[in-house]
Amino acid sequence: MSTKTFIFSLAVIVVALIASNSLFIVNEFERGVLLKFGRLSNADLAPGLHIKAPIIHEVRKFDGRVLTLDARAERFLTVEKKSMMVDSFAKWRIIDVGEYYTATNGEENRAERLLAQRINEGLRNQFAQRTLQEVVSGERDQLMVDLTNQLNNFTQTSLGIEVVDVRVKKIDLPTEVSGPVFSRMAAEREREAREHRSKGKEQAEIIRADADRQRTILQAQAYRDSELLRGEGDALAAAIYSQAYNKDPEFYAFVRSLNAYRSSFKDKQDLLVVDPNSDFFRYLNNSSGER
User: How far is the C-alpha of 51 from the C-alpha of 20, rounded, in Å?
Assistant: First the structure.
């Protein structure tokens, strides 16, 4: 390798090193600041390709997207002095890069610690002004709106960040009081269950009594109708017998005597003490039935 080639290659390497240390890119999802000897020179670098002086300048980049702060559960008191464990999270983003870097030295963890302290303080104040019913369901959305507005009044000017939203994930009872509360809830549910069972038994007795009454009425009506039909049948039978008897009274009397004889003497052990000249033996003594 000749001397000229070596010098040219060395020059190319030096230029490449200087270019790599002088050029930098800020992506569209990033926010950045340019420092000159450790002090802010450009507090808000636009996305794109930029030039800096090696050694003199330093570039700090931060995530410009909406970030999530998942705070740990904290104990708060309501206006009724009821203790609750509240688990919340917040959505935030950088809006003033220079203020953000000045307040947190560009450390995301530090920014989240400061924001978490403000969120806990705001939640404590909001819970202290409301009842348990209001924070659980009644005014929960309004509570979050008020808290977000209060936080932004501080964070936008002091930390350079905007709180997009604050939400409560879960509201629960502390461990030491959840047991007695659940026991009271179980006792209350058991009392309601007994009350419902009692009402059910009462309704069952009413329905059963009404069914028995209707059954008795139906049976009485059926017995009445059957007796009417039986009476009508007996009357019709009597009328038929009467008509048949009137056609030939002597023959009818003869048939009745034969049926009486058959019924009276069907068993060999039957004993009948009757006057031989009585009407019972009328046709037995004389086939013509003459007395």
Answer: 10
Return the SS3 of 160.
coil
> For position 142, what pLDDT does the model report?
81
Q: How many helices (H) and strands (E) does the chain have?
A: 8, 9
Please answer whether residues 133 and 150 qualify as being in contact, where contact means their C-beta atoms are separated by less than 8 angstroms.
no
> How far is 144 from 140, CA to CA, in rounded Å?
6
* CA-to-CA dists, residue 265 to 176, 239, 259, 268, 271, angstroms: 99, 30, 10, 7, 8
3-state secondary structure labels for all residues of 216-247: HHHHHHHHHHHHHHHHHHHHHHHHHHHHHHHH
| Spatial contact of 85 and 74, defined as CB atoms under 8 Å apart | yes
Contact 156, 96 (CB under 8 A): yes
Interacting residues of 145 by C-beta distance below 8 A, sequence separation 6+:
none
Low-confidence stretches of the chain (pLDDT beneath 50): none
Return the pLDDT at 276.
61
Would you state the structure tokens that stand for residue 199, as one six-digit string? 């009402």
Distances (CA, A) of 149 to 86, 121, 168, 213, 285: 20, 14, 16, 70, 130
Collapse the DSSP code of 28 into the 3-class scheme (helix H, G, I; strand E, B; otherwise coil) and give the result.
coil
Determine the pLDDT at residue 12: 60
Instruction: Please state, in angstroms and rounded to a whole number, the distance separating the CA atoms of residues 27 and 64.
Output: 10
Q: Is the dihedral of CA 245, 248, 250, 253 positive or negative?
A: negative
The set of residues, in sequence order, having a beta carbon less than 8 Å from that of 35 and lying 6+ positions away, is: 41, 57, 58, 59, 60
Predicted local distance difference test score (pLDDT) of residue 84 = 83
Fold of 67-172: Tetrahydropterin Synthase; Chain A (3.30.479)
pLDDT for 275 equals: 61
Is the C-alpha dihedral spanning 45, 50, 52, 54 positive or negative?
A: positive
